[in-house]
Design brief:
3-stranded parallel beta sheet, 699 residues, 17% strand, 7-stranded mixed beta sheet, alpha/beta, globular
Length: 699
Amino acid sequence: MSLIQIKKTDGNSRNDAIKNKNVTIWLADLTYTQQQISSESMPSAIGGIATYTEQNLCLKKPIRIFKYPEVLIESLETDGIPDIIGFSNYMWNSELSLAFVHRIKEVSPKTIIVMGGPNFPIIASEQELFLRNNPGIDFYVEGEGELAFANLVDILINVDFDKSRIQEDLPSIQYIDVNGKPRHANSVERISDLSVIPSPFLNGKLDEFFDGKLQPIIQTTRGCPFSCTFCIEGSKYYNKVNRYGQEKTNAELEYIAKKMKSTREKGGRNDLWIADSNFGMYAQDLETCEMIGKCQQQYNWPEYIQVDTGKNNKPRVLAGARLVNGAIRLSGSVQTLDKQVLVNIKRSNISENELMDMAQEASEVGADSRSEIILALPGESLKSHFETLRKVINSRFNHINTYQLMMIPGTELTESETRKTHNMATRYRVMPRCFGNYSILGSLQHIADIEEICVATNTLSFEDYIQARKMHLIINIFHNDGIFGSVIKLINHLNLSVFRWLELILEEELKGELKLLFSNYEIETRNELWKEKKDLEAEINNSNIVEKYIKGELGYNLLAIYQTRALTKNLDDLLTLTKKMLSKLIIEGGKDTEENLKFMDEVLKFDHGRSEKLFTDIDYSPRIKFNYNIPKFLENELQKFDACKEPTPLEIQFVLDDDQKRIIDRSITMYGKSDVGIGRLLAKVFVTKLLRKPLIINR
């Protein structure tokens, strides 16, 4: 694909600019690092922009790639400031990137600074305001970056990096020209054959990022055929799905597998992120899964695949899951099941029966099945939100991700008309792990990224929002990750409702440590929200405050932290509450036979043995006696509990095998043993596969 040809702004011929092919260009996809690495993906997106630009412009110097702020700071100080530097702009690194933009422009006004990424308004007046409020940004690349950035660099070379000589519209580029006029041309046509982008993996551009901390990320398609208003890819620009060639994808997987084998052997991570929006919807995705399966056989990578699977081709998605030995994360994301809300957000969903089938078949292939639900969508009420939770949980997904509605710039949902129609009340908070104190070119910067979330609408009050957040914590503790998996199996076996059990927990008046836990959670849920963004920004501009965020005293993911505290510090109290509410559910359902209640006690002991001290003492291996063979119950669909009753007590030892210990050790090394670290671990691994295995020892 040739570059778009744009008329030059003066009489210079192309040959006159050859000397400037020696241009120094850096690209940065930064992540916060001072508490944990907030964005763990390798910078493959800017890597592709770099390789495409190098290939099309025949630059003399390779474009340098940066991920860690500390490395960029050191390079700025030791190697000098480049001619052109570009920064990614996502919700989780916007302020971090802007801090570098402003400081570099202060020190080196002639340096050309480019920014690109989806955290950008879609309304022209708001786009102009963003650029005027951030004058350090010389050019903003909108949409796909490869072609537009290469084109921009070509023009800059031809004007000897004097941006004042550019006074015309540039496709996919927004900027304020020398006369103060906002410039915004139509977008360049998206790249249809993505294989023309040289792989940053295969040419070694990303080798330095195989450090055991970052996650390799590949993309086999770009675009999404759906039009959800809360999503960046819901816009018409991204409606067409384009693909990388299979040969390139296979080569990348083979290359990454070899690198990750070495990384894993040194104690590093062993996973993969596929960044497609609807993986598994297309026939070629099965070819990708076949290649991943080969990598698993030869290199024992990947153990776990983070991906959003497609919703409209369940058989193909499940076939892919089998090919990768259940390592894939199957997504049955619905966001809501309320028909009117779906109309409001321009979304279509798979049916409830298909959801149940997917969860069941995912279980059969040993895959992690997850569904996503968003609180406070336009038109959603507490009743309809709970109804969605009920249907999805009773569909038997093993993990429900509950999200708050983020007001993401660049989405239709954030437009003023939408806000006004649904009376959307929003608040601001610091994003978890997205903060730090960084000294950039001699200037100490106190930085944090802030997100805007919806906390009330004309159908959902703020107190309803709080009530829903309590239920979300209960789901995280009692439903997700398989900690109470045997209990959930028992409830389903008795044809009772798992969601009703969770509702009973929500309705219960708690006592002791659990009362304090949930009370503190509610207080922090209220206190983390700021009505005015400027007030939160003023608070952040204080090194002592940011230090508290870094130490984990402020700004953590409340669901993850309180789930961690409950499971690591209050497990016995959770079991007592579980027994009480499970008994109540069984009585309420008319299933309170003596045998059912005895079996309930056995199931609770079993779940305790699998999960106690799981992340604090991997050598802990309790022995417990049972009157029923619970492993037999879990592995089979039994009609009656008598089928697994033992004539004499059965002694079971709960053990972690070597593979489980290695995964836990690697995860602890990566994230730490603090509440923040364990919370991150719970969100990143397939916890169900890490539960202790039952070993019968008296046969």
